[in-house]
Amino acid sequence: MSYTKLNFMMSVLGIIIYISDLIVDTWVSVRFFHEGKYVFGILTVSFMLFGTLVVQCFSYSWFKTDLKKAGQESPRCFLLLHCLQGGIFTRYWFALKKGYQVAFKYSSKTDTFLGEQIDLRKEVIDRVTDLSMLRLFETYLEGCPQLVLQLYISLEYEQASISQYAAIGISFCAISWSTLDYQVSLRKSLPDKHVFSGPCPKFIYLFYKLFTLLSWMLSVVLLLFLNVKIALFLLLFLWVLGILWAFKQQTQFCASISMEFLYRVIVGFILIFTFFNIKGQNTKCPMSCYYTVRVLATSGILAVFWGCPLSVFNLDYFLPISITVALTLLLGIIFLIVYYGTLHPNRSKETKPDEIDGKPVQIDCRMKYFIME
What we know:
mainly alpha
């Protein structure tokens, strides 16, 4: 278990991307309201609020749990900070402050550490992992819908402003960074898991996630052009299925019933866009079913789209998009097979439950009831 200078720089990069995302989204929403596109402006703000409110709820809940474990009362200032949407910044402040001390003042190659130094490293890794999961939540709750919306608007009006291009670029960077950073932090914080052996598995995993995600988001954009109501109904249907799956799995991620319910709702939303292992069980069968449905749904959307040609469609845009959808889905499935078939860090070990796309569990972890089997 180590926390290096590179890990510290990744944390710095994380807050830079987070702040940039907030600035660009605010810029885009203000521009929409200024141009009289109130529906798009309201949607942009709604996605921002949805993501940040959920993240603040989990952040404050975790702060309360940590302080209660230490025998301390939760200061009212923490509640105020989270009400003012400052929970993430507070966590970054603590993580960077302690992380700098560990990364630059203690040598990562020294094996003879004092007990307090080891505890400090563990504390930093736990804080960074908390941040990684919160950013992962925020990315999929706000970044993915935001990216779909901006792509749809750009194609609908066959032009995009600088702010929209910036929003698309920042959202893509945020999704890429949070997806890879969380997977790295997860494995670093779990003592019984192998870390990635070099950059190759990291990039293969990232490409698998990004290609399958991009293919699906473009498919949703095409469906929005066909019929907005049908597209929204499909997304809502998939969300409900995801929530039901989370309830069927009987997750026990949170200490309170209300937060557990919220967690299952959030898991259902994330499952709209990507597969999410929520209980540490072997995911070969569920993942196979998930991506089989994804391939069928994407193929069905493409078939319907090209089976119902409309004069409003510009082939200069939609022919390349259709090709991109099919190609990225194919590449994503190929990278998925390569990653889990040859590059997965646990492939040489005995068959065990896959790592959890959730808060890492340790003996003294507040989420010790997360893994049930």
